[in-house]
Design brief:
Order of helices and strands of chain A: HHH
Order of helices and strands of chain B: HEHEHEHEHEHEHEHHHEH
Oligomer: heterodimer
Largest sheet of chain B: 8 strands, parallel, barrel
Distance between the termini of chain B: 6 Å
Helix content of chain A: 25-40%
Strand content of chain A: under 5%
Structural class of chain A: mainly alpha
Radius of gyration of chain B: 19 Å
Number of helices of chain A: 3
Chain lengths: ~130, ~325
């Protein structure tokens, strides 16, 4: 591993783990998920909650933990910016990036690379009473 | 490769459709699957073959779906992202298409901890939303997720699920909208017991302009006994069974509980039919195909309509 990446990781990893319980997927979308890390979801869902969320808002798998996506939804509504990003269709995880620095991957454009068969989607048109914000 | 989904045809003709769930088989003998399916023949338009439902191992949904195709009964193949990575999912989708399967329902799946192999490794390589996109890309662009071309693209009618009753409630219609964008043609919902909450959900869906863009089919459960209602309430993830319903069955003498369960289901069918944007019902009698037929009959859903003869019924065409 290059020295620069090791240095960046020395800052990024403990910081993000302490604040967001970051799982180091290397392709951070925290701003799209109300600052709730979706990789903490036992099903690694990056596009919204599963159907198993308990009536009290806790996780289907861990009854004593709040659903990551309930927190993501609430968090996204509190964000001053990026509010609408929770509606973005997130591309499949690139598991090759696990453990690498998402900061470097962001700057290098590496985390923006989607599989060739993945179609980029235009921004979501919204209307009606369920407001998207932004 | 030219046959189309009959279910899609009926929905596009504006018919109110009826689907049901096949009890999953634990038998190496295909007769077990066929016996269950024969009970439903003629009473429903298509039959869901579940994928390790409740995270319990059963015969694969692909095999069960193919067994139905062989008998001229239209299957809806469920596929979860819990047990397969993106390679296996695409391989099974293409294989299903070649075996005559036209309808899909793609979902995350109950977690392994809910099932009989809680120590299993969960996969979740891609999520349900991404699987919808993958199936749509195979169909519409004729490529795998990698971008590599298929020799012949499948013709899928793509379904997804939504649970209108699980938090965060305000996000659920938006998530459904996201599924439509990802490629869902129809939605089967979680079991509806709370009609008022479901109507509220449908109003939000309509507000998003989704009525007419996606067919929404609520699931109606047919409790066979107070005990089965109690089980659903306590043990099934994401299911919200009101205490009053369990109590109503408990007040009923045991010999008449099944009859009361059918009555409850018919009431629910009649209630959801009135809600704008509802395109059909998905009847679930847990290990009880006869209950499905009784509900379809009592709710006035029989006989099932036939489609124009140009469209073949599920075969390889």
């Amino acid at each position: 591993m290059r020295v620069i990446e090791r240095l960046v990781l020395a800052v990024e990893k403990p910081l993000k783990e302490a604040i967001w319980d970051c799982q180091m997927c290397g392709q951070c979308i925290l701003h799209s998920t109300g600052l709730s890390c979706p990789m903490r979801c036992p099903k690694n869902l990056r596009n919204g909650p599963c159907g198993g969320v308990r009536p009290d808002g806790n996780c289907e798998v861990y009854a004593d933990k709040r659903c990551v996506w309930v927190e993501a939804w609430e968090g996204s509504q509190r964000l001053p910016v990026f509010k609408s990003h929770i509606h973005h269709l997130q591309k499949p995880v690139d598991w090759q990036l696990q453990g690498t620095s998402s900061w470097i991957n962001l700057l290098s454009g590496r985390d923006g690379k989607a599989p060739l068969g993945w179609s980029p989607h235009p921004a979501l048109p919204q209307r009606g009473r369920v407001s998207e914000g932004e | 490769m030219t046959s189309q989904s009959r279910l899609a045809g009926l929905l596009r003709e504006g018919r109110f459709v009826v689907t049901a769930e096949l009890s999953s088989s634990d038998s190496a003998d295909p007769e077990a699957t066929w016996r269950q399916a024969e009970v439903l023949r003629g009473s429903v338009d298509a039959i869901n073959c579940t994928d390790n439902t409740g995270a319990h191992v059963h015969m694969s949904s692909l095999a069960a779906a193919h067994l139905l195709v062989e008998k001229g009964i239209e299957p809806i193949m469920q596929l979860t992202v819990r047990d397969r990575n993106r390679l296996a999912l695409q391989a099974d989708l293409l294989g299903a298409a070649a075996l005559g399967v036209r309808n899909l329902v793609l979902m995350s799946g109950d977690d392994v901890t809910a099932g009989d192999h809680p120590e299993a490794r969960r996969i979740y390589d891609i999520d349900s939303m991404q699987l919808l996109e993958v199936a749509a890309a195979m169909r519409d662009r004729g490529t795998y997720l990698s971008g590599r071309k298929l020799e012949q693209a499948p013709t899928f009618f793509i379904g997804a699920v939504e649970n209108p009753f699980a938090p965060p409630l305000e996000f659920r219609p938006l998530r459904l909208q996201k599924k439509v964008r990802a490629g869902a043609d129809f939605i089967q919902t979680q079991l509806v017991f709370d009609v008022r909450l479901f109507a509220h959900f449908m109003a939000m869906v309509a507000d998003l302009g989704l009525v007419g863009k996606v067919f929404i089919i609520p699931s109606i459960g047919i409790p066979r006994s107070a005990r089965s209602a109690h089980f659903m309430r306590e043990k099934v993830p994401g299911l919200h069974v009101p205490e009053s319903l369990v109590a109503r069955l408990e007040r009923t003498p045991q010999a008449r509980q099944a009859e009361e369960g059918v009555k409850i289901a018919v009431e629910l069918v009649n209630a959801v039919r009135e809600i704008p944007g509802v395109s059909g019902v998905h009847l679930i009698g847990i290990k009880w195909e006869e209950g499905v037929v009784q509900v379809a009959e009592a709710a006035g859903l029989l006989p099932r309509p036939t489609l124009s003869p140009l469209v073949s019924a599920g075969g390889r065409g």
